[in-house]
Amino acid sequence: MANRLSSIATRTGDDGSTGLGDGSRVPKDHLRIQAMGDVDELNSQLGVLLAEPLPADVRELVITIQHELFNLGGELCMPGYELLKQDAVLRLDEALAHYNEALPRLQEFILPAGTRSAAIAHVCRTVARRAERAVVTLATTEAINAAPRQYLNRLSDLLFVLARVLNRANLDGLGGDDVYWHSERLKRYEEQEASDD
User: Fold this and answer.
1) What is the mean pLDDT of the chain?
2) CA separation, residue 38 to residues 53, 68, 147, 173 (Å)
3) Predicted confidence band at 2 (pLDDT cuts at 50, 70, 90)?
4) Of 35, 34, 32, 40, which is closest to residue 142 (Cα–Cα)?
5) pTM across the whole model
6) Tens digit of each residue's pLDDT (9 = 90 or more) over 127-148
7) DSSP codes of every residue in 127-193
8) 148-155: Cβ within 8 A, 24+ apart
């Protein structure tokens, strides 16, 4: 395979434009570039997650997801191409069913907290939602295949589930369970604030 990146600093973007995979140039704030950037940020956040202690099966899954996100980014970079296949979406569905099956039903909303790895998974989840919104927005102006949008939607759900899995794995000793939102605690805080005034 030929070297794809012969130079990183090309200076061709100094005018505020950037090149797409088909050779066309668009402004750096183009909706397509914003979607690509959000997908890239998500992949980078997953790299941070991979720097944490993880169960081996979760690590392998996240590595696979990184490769699929690279395909998704490549598809966004080349209008009219299809690089992310529907079987990637099905793999996420299967992983979601597998990991969710062993978790207890939620009794309340949970906070993005617990172990460091779980908290990072929650950050990844929120970036996945932003990337999904960017792809949906892009699809209002340009033709986009269904798989990228579906993949990001499923991935956000899976990352929520993986955060719960990682809290239970408790590999740093700081987790063990979901961190529940306590509406009563907030109510007591507000009452205390009112009485102090």
Assistant:
1) 85
2) 25, 14, 16, 32
3) very low
4) 32
5) 0.82
6) 999 999 999 999 999 999 999 9
7) HHHHHHHHHHHHHTTS---HHHHHHHHHHHHHHHHHHHHHHHH-TTSS-SS--B--HHHHHHHHHHH
8) 148/72, 148/75, 148/76, 148/84, 150/89, 151/68, 151/72, 151/84, 151/88, 151/89, 151/92, 152/39, 152/72, 152/128, 154/89, 154/92, 154/93, 154/96, 155/65, 155/92, 155/128
